[in-house]
Amino acid sequence: MASSLRLPAPLAALLLLVLCTLVPPIHAIKFSLQTFRFPPSKCIWNTAHDGALVIVTANVGPGDNQRVDIEIIDSSPEKRVYLSKRDIKGETRLAVTTHADGEVGVCFKNYLHKDISSEKATKMSRIIDLDVDIGAEAVDYNAIANQESLSGLETEMRKLEGLVKEIVDEMGYLKKREERFADTNVSTQQRVQNFAWFTILSLAALGVWQIFHLRSFFRRKYLID
């Protein structure tokens, strides 16, 4: 008689959490990029923290009389340009390190050759297969294992260490955001309170001025002594 093995609920939940953690999120996308004489920029954005390693793998499909340029930027007010490359073909692998918390954008432009008419351009495009790895996902653990002679278990532990570090960094980032929002909230409340006091004092001063003004007016009209 076969018996089924049942795990305790807390242990099963912990095992499920570990398995979900080991599955990396997907940052791959495939799309068609229309060509133009003066093409707009098509950007794919991903969240990244300060100092994160970003590996961009772009596979550009064939297309005659077209030139695809790539640019990696961030969403900071300075709009930093980490890397820019013209006329990429086939598979292109690029690596950058972020300098600020926020989003990293991988932008493409598909330029039409000057000898091709705009009417033909409506049917011309190139297929872009984009894969973006950020943080622990961008680390080549197989190369590290070969270099440091790590076993399979040690390699998995190294991966878990990287993932845990990312989680800690994420918690630190969220804590900083919470503190910044709290400071903004306190500052806003202080400004509202100051404006309320200013309004009250202004109304009081206006009321006093009106009393003296009316009193002076009535005296000039001999309505009061």
UniProtKB/TrEMBL annotation:
It is found in: Membrane. Residues 1-28 form the signal peptide. PROSITE patterns: GOLD (PS50866). Residues 41-134 form the GOLD domain. The chain crosses the membrane at residues 195-212. Pfam families: EMP24_GP25L. It comes from the Eukaryota. It is a single-pass type I membrane protein. Coiled coil: none annotated. Its main location: membrane. GO terms for cellular component: membrane. InterPro entries: Emp24-like (IPR015720), GOLD_dom (IPR009038). Keywords: Membrane, Signal, Transmembrane, Transmembrane helix. PANTHER family: TRANSMEMBRANE EMP24 DOMAIN-CONTAINING PROTEIN (PTHR22811). Belongs to the EMP24/GP25L family. This is Emp24/gp25L/p24 family/GOLD-domain-containing protein.
